[in-house]
UniProtKB/TrEMBL annotation:
Domain Hemerythrin-like, chain residue ranges per copy: 637-773
Family from the record: Belongs to the cation transport ATPase (P-type) (TC 3.A.3) family. Type IB subfamily.
GO CC terms of this entry: plasma membrane
EC number assigned by the record: 3.6.3.3
One GO MF term: ATP hydrolysis activity
Name of the encoding gene: cadA
Membrane association type: Multi-pass membrane protein
Annotated ranges, domain P-type ATPase A: 131-229
UniProtKB keywords: ATP-binding, Cell membrane, Hydrolase, Membrane, Metal-binding, Nucleotide-binding, Translocase, Transmembrane, Transmembrane helix
Compartment(s): Cell membrane
Protein name: Cadmium-translocating P-type ATPase
Transmembrane segments: 25-44, 51-70, 82-109, 246-265, 271-292
Matching Gene3D superfamilies: Calcium-transporting ATPase, cytoplasmic domain N (3.40.1110.10), Calcium-transporting ATPase, cytoplasmic transduction domain A (2.70.150.10), HAD superfamily/HAD-like (3.40.50.1000), nmb1532 protein domain like (1.20.120.520)
Amino acid sequence: MNRFLLVARVRSSTAALASPRLEHGLLVVTTAALVGGGVAHFLDATGLADLFWGLGTVSAFVPAVGWVLVALRRGHAGVDLIAVLALGGTLAVGEYLAGTLIALMLATGRTLEEAAQRRAYHDLHSLLAHAPRSARRRTDDDVVRVPLGEVAAGDALVVGPGEVVPVDGRVESAEAVLDESALTGEPLQATRHRGEVARSGAVNAGGAFDLRATATEQDSTYAGIVRLARQAGAESAPVVRLADRYAAWFLPLALATAALAWLVSGSAVRAVAVLVVATPCPLLLAAPVAVVSGLSRASRRGVVVRDGGALENLGRARTLLLDKTGTLTVGRPCVRDVVAAPGHVPTEVLRTAASLDQFSPHVLAQALVDTARDRRLELSEPTEVTEEPGRGARGIVDGHRVFIGRDDAQARPAWAKAVDNRALLDGATVTWLAVDEHLTGAVLLRDPLRHDAPHAVRRLRSAGIARLVMLTGDRAATAQEVAAVLGLDGVRAGLGPADKVAAVRDEREHAVTVMVGDGVNDAPALAAADIGVAMGARGSTASSEAADIVLTTDRVDRLADAVVIAQRSRRIAVQSALGGMLLSLAAMAAAALGLIQPTVGALLQEGIDIAVILNALRALRAGRSEQVALAPAAEALIHRFAAEHDALQDVLQSVRAAADRLSRAPGPTALASVEEAHRLLTERLLPHEYAEEHELYPALAPSLGGPESTATMSRAHNEIGRLSRRIATHLQLARANGGLAPEQLDDLRSCLYGLNTVLRLHFTQEEESYFSLAP
């Protein structure tokens, strides 16, 4: 028993010796000892100077032994072992000044390293906070709330509005509207009908529904997610310090040289001199300084790297796994298009739908209202509004009975069938508008690609990321479309949290792997990866806490900045460490020949330290491959024209609507639609394109490398102007002839569809290539 107590005391003592507080205190003590001894030496108080320096040496020797013991207990001898031998040697031969200098360098290196490699524990606060603690169980007479642990398979439960589904079960009501974003990451709500499965962790986004439990708390989906995150975090391998990797060969070489010098010369002082100049300060200082500089540089770009080991690993990464929703896509539904029935216009369809939906908390309703306000539409005040969860909303708008939501009618007009086809092809969700019981329009919504995602993928490729794979819980067709646009190397769709963890483990067997995600469901995969990256600006707390790197701005292209910074910091750290060690090797040879005494060797080592530290500090500066910096005026222009893009979406829709009507019925109504589209082009879109050409592009040219960088966009402006003039010519002919001639129809249709395509492509290119540059 006494032996076990002794072992426990030794372990607790070494843990205390390795505490950050002690390292900071040691830095203060060794600095004070060096300065105090220097003052005493200047005053010819040699004995007092040796006392100060001796105390400074001893103050470092004791904790350094503790650090070495901790390292040996973990199975490796780190860079501190040579420092311990050198400190002991200086005490043995009375070279106290050399010992204090080594102590100061050791304390400085440990303090810097602690700052560079402070690692956050993988906390699961958000997961646990979201997990339900109780359930409402239906009895013969009443509904009672019981602790979740008492729920058994087969129990009849009631899930109220806004409550979390407590356990896995089957829906027993007609339907249940669930927000499953915590499980799948997908922002759109899912409707589960009678008999279908509802998983624990989903939130009831509709009315109360009955649930028949099919599993206990521990066997349910959400409890499994928590267990996965814990297991994956426990399996994460500890990061091996860059300094320790080099020490693996430097340490035995230094010891062999010191031993040989002692054996040949018979002088212990010569052996101590070898150990003094061999003290791996380039490793103790250069690598941490470069890494700390990289961390500082990354933080300025909105990237919080939680420890130096993660930055080092990121610099070696070659495989990147990305969640789709909230990472490559915006993470919420946005209006893609507005379609109006014959006799109606898209702008009025959107205005009416948003007017009714402006007080609804539904995610689709919010998207409609935001789009209408972005386009500066004046919304009306609805009355008598009722909402049927999972179905839609009804009310009175401007004296008309309006319905917005799901339409289950089997018989539909031709234009509505075309909308269904477009929704299928685009992977979009459709919400229908009916006014006075007549279908008058539809709004297509989807989770769009982030503007900065293509730019980020290109920069990650150029930074050396060889494999880019998307992991998503979404459908395969939607995921494949996103991957094709971005040019990814692979897609794994329909994945749950456990599947994502398995995919991460598969990739880790082949290369250092980074996982990027957003949401509670991504936390296990982030913890399982070599480096987990969370979209922390609006992502879940669980994913941020399970990650090694958090992007504090809602921009995935900041990850490319982090990779570039990590690679450059690691490269500078390696350069500094190797350069310093080569100089130390030369000094070791001189010391072994008796040309350098311990004190002189310590001063020489200080000179080497200064050189490698100055080189390591280069990591604070921006590298050539980092993203261009824009002038404030250029940033302001980007924000202005980005806002105009949002406001001009109705112009693009009017061009498409005019082309569709011309195809269906080329009569006076279709001609009026073309006239309206041309008016919007002339009054709003063409002035916008002119301003871009003469204001935005010249402002961007200096940062992008000259006017040639915007030449392809200028060519698109020319094509937009050409097609607009061609449409104007057709309209002049129609006015002269009293209507559209048959021979005009094919070319006019081609002009409208072509203009719609060019405009959408041009807008997307500008948003990805130029607008994504501004924070």
